[in-house]
Amino acid sequence: MSMVAGQFTEGRMHPIPLVMAGCQLTLHTDSVRLREITTDFFPSHGAQSRHCSHASLSMRVSKRKKASRTGREFPIFRGRREYVHADYGNDGSVWFDLKARAVSAVLSDELIADAEFFRRAVLAVIAGVLAPSLGLACLHAGCVIRNGKAVLLSAASGVGKSTLTLALARRGWSLLSDEWTFVTRTETGLRTWGMRTSIKLMPDAARYFPELSRLSLAPALNGELSFEVEPWNVFGVDRAIEAEPKAIVLLERDSRPCLGPRCQVRRCDPEQTRTALLRDLEEQPAEANGGNYACLSLMESLCAIPSLNARFCGHPAEVAAQLDPILTELVCD
Length: 333
Prior knowledge:
Layout: E1 14-20, E2 23-29, H1 32-41, E3 54-62, E4 76-80, E5 83-87, E6 92-97, E7 102-108, H2 109-113, H3 115-130, E8 137-146, E9 149-154, H4 161-169, E10 174-177, E11 180-186, E12 189-193, E13 199-201, E14 218-219, E15 225-229, H5 231-234, E16 242-253, E17 262-267, H6 270-278, H7 291-302, E18 307-313, H8 316-332
Parallel strand pairs: 2-3, 3-7, 9-16, 16-18
Antiparallel strand pairs: 1-2, 4-5, 5-6, 6-7, 8-9, 8-10, 8-11, 11-12, 12-16, 13-15, 14-15, 17-18
Helix pairs in contact: 4-8
């Protein structure tokens, strides 16, 4: 390919503008396939950059022959001050300079052959590590959208956040994220953002979603056997990229014997919300462009929006049916 009429030239490093959660990225790559996957994950269309934070992303493909061991067992992280290294073994490395907001990667052909694996194993990792230095908070929370307003669903691992998020999406909510949601501050207020990643469902989710019965379990990056699927393809739900956060729901699994669907909802005070949101927030090095201060400031702003505690058990579809009108009323106010 050539640069005639704006076309991409294989083997040359061309700058490509991208957007990550409202922040500007500039991608430099020598690979058409890397360009295609990355521009799909960080789309510059349909969303405009909301503030001036900017990062550079340089990714090259190594065509050397690799040993049989692949990057699916990785990444392994190492870091010192503002420098972070994600090691994918024989399949390459990603280096971060958080102070300079610069990412450099050399990756194998084998690693980028599986686009879905590359999105969640490399691009999602890049987004998560880079986010605080861009003034973004990365929340361990699902997010669903209705009427352009977002509801964040926060819970500890294993509570059932992903299954409940999906169950709400199947009731007509748009799905922004099932596990990790970015929050940023704009001139008009807070915004939530999602990336194009698969949804991760544990093996018992097959009891609730028959579509999973024809799929196979596979190890996730943390070693857990799970289903990782693109929900808009498998379940036909709508996808969202950004929205204004309108409410937060703190999810808890009811430990009492569950004889049927049960969902008890009550209001939360800001201190309960703050404790829950800070639970999974990772501390950033002081050199990383004030990442800690920016994240804590965003958390304080999030604690000012309405917050609920939902203690539930039972089939996620039936719990979602109970939550749906409550959340709809919140986003329609």
